[in-house]
Amino acid sequence: MNPRIDALHPYPFEKLRALVSGITPNPDLAPLSLGIGEPQHPPPQVAIDALIAQVGDVAHYPATLGRASLRAAIADWLKQRFALNTIDPDQQVLPVTGTREALFAVVQALVGDDCDIAMPNPFYQIYEGAALMAGATPIYLAADPSNDFKPMGDTGIPDYDRLAMMFICTPGNPSGKVYTSAELQQLIRLAQRHDFILVSDECYSEIYRDQAPAGLLQAAADMGLDDYRNCLAVGSLSKRSNLPGLRSGYMAGDAHLLKRFARYRTYHGCAMPGHHQAASEAAWGDEAHVAENRRLYRIKFDRAYELLADYLDDQPPAAGFYLWPKVPGGDDEGFTRFLLERQNLRVLPGRYLARDVDGSNPGAGHFRAALVSAPDTTETALVRLKTALDEWSARA
Predict the structure, then answer these.
(1) For the chain, is the Cβ count within 10 Å smaller at the N or the C terminus?
(2) Does the pLDDT of residue 345 top 80, yes or no?
């Protein structure tokens, strides 16, 4: 048995199930959940049509590198969206079977044991699991108000000589904070100075409120770094196009790193099925559904800030689809249980998305609520959430 398996922490939703196992939800209310970030808006018909039209391709083995036409479609989208001067679809773009697979596997391919991997705290737990399974040591960089929820790597790194990789998430999960181009360039210079790999998780980049967020490759190109040295960016159709079940995304950037990663994936067996590639190509080529997606999220966030003004920051997050409120009194686990019992509504305690460092957990005292359902369902959930917060606040 691989002993590194034992180092993996239970996933947040496993902890949540244990937390609420003894709770009897209010039987007078239909169950609702704001706990899981699974988009519920309709997927684009153009992608569904392409998927159906190409379903016969299941009779063929797909190539690890994906179809040239899909790589070209992703490259064209990257150039347009992030104003890139150039990106080579054959050397600097790799289709992946969802960003979870890519984020985990790239660590196994590119990082040796007995080194450090830095990540924000709170974080997407795949970063940590990938580090632990590779035999690396996770370094948790607090994402909190002291740095506007955007760790810059200037504090918290014990030894840059040991640092092999740093994960960032922009827009952030769960904060929705966005790194500016100048901040990304600062991180790029840091990565090149100390020769570590900078991986930018940009899964939420298209769910923005007003202004399209900058991306890592965009920041590198603005510096004149068209080779994107030391930089890898990851994006997905799950959030952008409401296609989480398609398991389709990309990794793009440094050609030398991608070549090594592609060799690993040849053995790993993660080639995207041909009909999924066809659907992906269609989705990357259509922006109308993405604009409609943003419109629906804007409606829900506006309503959330009307109903929950007493419990939220002054302004909605710049991007993403999460609320990250503080719990009155600070007991995020207690409030999660109370909310399910009284309102049959699930959220995720913030502490489950972070780790204790020096006795402090930067997620504790918050909860995460995903506004992913249709506007009418979200409205019902928000009304229940306000009722519970008002009652809990009076007791706190």
Answers:
(1) N
(2) yes
